[in-house]
## 1
Amino acid sequence: MDLSAKNGQWESDLIRQFEWFHSHPELSYAEKETTAKIRALLTKANIELMPYPLDTGLVAVIRGTKPGGDRRTAALRCDIDALAIQEETHLPYASKNPGVMHACGHDFHITAGIGAAILLQNQRADFGGTVKVIFQPGEEESHGARKIIDAHVMCDVDRIWGFHADPSQEAGVIAVGEGYVTAAVDHFIIRLHGVGCHGAHPDEGKDPIPAAAAIIQGLQTIVSRNINAFHPALLSVTRVQAGAAWNVISPDALLEGTVRTMEPKDRLLYETRVREIADKTAAAYGVSAQTEWIPGPPATHNDGRMAALCETIAKKTRQKTAPQAPSMGGDDFSYYEDPAAVGKEIPGCYFKIGTGVGPQIHHPAFCVDERAIRPAAEYLANLLLADMGSIGLVPAPLSR
Ligand code: NI
């Protein structure tokens, strides 16, 4: 048998699947064709699918058959949705859906997840527990993980793995570290109400615009005056809106923005201080403020033991490793580790896989180096096998 030909076929199958997912991007909760394609590929590989109540996404279940092995369940999260971005890569397999693009590499996540599921299915005799591969909808919308948790997918899960494409690393580099790696994402809206009047007679009204300006300045002192200087945290005011005419003082103003923190205590402190600064500054300017606080996913915290395993397997499979740069961006992966969401403590690890150095995620020219795909599928399978107590690695060439 020509072993290299078999390996080459496996790799070209994965690349063909990746290109299909890339050219058929779908927005959060509209991932219908994506879901149908994943289902078809998993079904063809005789992989069990969990009963699942949501319209999009699905969960593959691979049950190890090794007698007396570890009986626990590990999950691997792969998000599947795309972004409302007009693609500018000029790739031959560019998006066929105008204004929608896989600009966050979730097409890579899907393909690597399917590849890993097939490899694990073939290696069932080598482990005892169960692996769930979660193809999660709606990550970009920040609440897809909550829907998966509410669908009782996590009831029997003991630990959760996640990964993300990383365009700051060469293809195949595994970047991992322990501790906080993504931030908690909170959203605030401050509505100021004053009294409108003629632009020439501000003394007859209550102008909310100077109050808004003072609040913006005040909010930036939270990080420098209230937060421990060793804790990563930030606040960005991203929208300021007031007025409709050059000679009229607006009765209302609106400020909107985001707060990013790693430590849960800082998250609570920020909410308290944003409300205080908005209320008291507004009062000082004779206007009123209403603050709406919209919490998003918490920070992602990598378990030390899992992060160490991640690195060990990368070295064992001769993949380059790099320290994982923590990000003030968020990922709803953190809900899977959040006892408030899941109802129990689940250790997790969320690492990066290099997809070739190029434009960053969410950029219209972002693209994945296809040489990253097959190694990623094999690495994920090896990581899960090791986590399930198997001492072997996925054999090469790969039997399919
Ligand atoms: Ni993403």
Note: The longest helix spans residues 3-23.
## 2
Amino acid sequence: MTTGFCFDERTLWHSTGEAALFLRPGGWVQPPAGGGAAENPETKRRFKNLLEVSGLWRKLAVESAEPATEAALRRIHPSRYLEAFKRLSDADGGILGEESPFGHGGYEIGALSAGLATHAMDRVLSGVWRNAYSLSRPPGHHCMPDHSMGFCLLANIPIAIEEMRARHQLGKVAVVDWDVHHGNGTQAIYWDRPDVLTISIHQNACYPVHLGTVAERGEGAGAGANFNIPLLPGGGHNSYLAAMDRIVLPALDRFRPDLIVVACGLDANGLDPLARMMAHSGTYRDMTARMMQAADRLCSGRLVMVHEGGYSEVMVPFCGHAIMETLSGEGTAVVDPLLDFLIAQQPPPEFDALEGQRLTEMARGFGL
Ligand code: ZN
């Protein structure tokens, strides 16, 4: 069966303005050459371009989608936020939260980004595609219902999940967020919901700095349905796979979801400018294989990945390409030229032992 890839060039025309990574120019910050914002189209465009150049593009079902509807957006976001967003977007753009600027027309592009995620889930739940990747931009996992955050303007994954509930008989959903930053928006939206399991693997105290601790487990009916796995800075391939094997997979097995969604940030690799982890394309390949095995075991293979962060123009394409090879089961001639370089720099065994100990304690704390 087919692997879908949801993409629309218009999402690459979303403007995040001029910044030095995420800092506004001014004061002591010199305006950067060429725009400079960390969240810019190039990482996404180069991921998509590598799929075309390798030939994998032709083996995927590539589709665009309609924007998410007003009704779909309103299930997650209050009207006052959406109206303020639309008003600024119709003018010259602006900012409605921290580190999340947008330009003219940003509202429509944001709705399209959520629409791509929605379409990917719809195709998989309808049985048309085996699994799917949505190259959504702007990303969504930091966005709160009433304000934007960290480049995220709309909560793409919750918008899509709730639209799927309206269209399909969808029961329980698990969201596994392996973006290197904490999935605070998704956590907040599903904080008291028992039907959506949220799991975030992230660099400890990276962004948002004060969130993403193991103590945040959800509340009320949702108590116990939120897991945070903060990894020490410098953790690499072994840390990520140990987190998957000791915590993520047992938690999924216990929850028994009807759909698995991955909030797929590609910023945990060793060259990302906004984090300090040491994963590589092989890590994403192996984590994807584990997610596919879990989906096969638990929910007839239903697996949808939605793009989040990832700011290395060199690494994001190779990490994304490895994921698409794995999801589709199609090999190509592409070799990641940085794989050996990053494997050679993996943390020493003592670090793995320390991180393994932490993960074992976390798993015990979670009752897994
Ligand atoms: Zn991120």
Note: DSSP finds eleven helices and twelve strands in the chain.
## 3
Amino acid sequence: MTAHPHPAPNNEWDGRFWQAIAHGRLELQRCAECGTFRHPPGPVCARCGATSSEWVESAGTGEVWSYTVIHPPTLPAFRERTPYGAVVIRLDEGVFMVSNLVDTPVEQLATGVRVTVAISEVDDGVYLPLFREG
Ligand code: ZN
């Protein structure tokens, strides 16, 4: 089996996000001025323009906002798992995150389903914030 692609943070904010995931925590960046959550993490608040921010642990709950089913051809690392669902999760903090659901067959994918984060080791030392129903 081809190795799973690794997250490749390319700035300090991405690095901070993935560091928390590797320690089993889903943390979100929040503007220290107006309290708006932002994801993907970055240097400036899109709402108020402030550059100060803090990191807080997410409740880890949300809903399936959208989804699609992936069929071949795809990257070699994902070929054996097709067909699989790619979902857009709207976390209760208001930010969106692309992920996968664990334990949900593709024919049962639906929008509006409540989900909880399930940080999973998908390859040796590779942790991703996946989600499961409930
Ligand atoms: Zn702000």
Note: The chain has a mean pLDDT of 95.
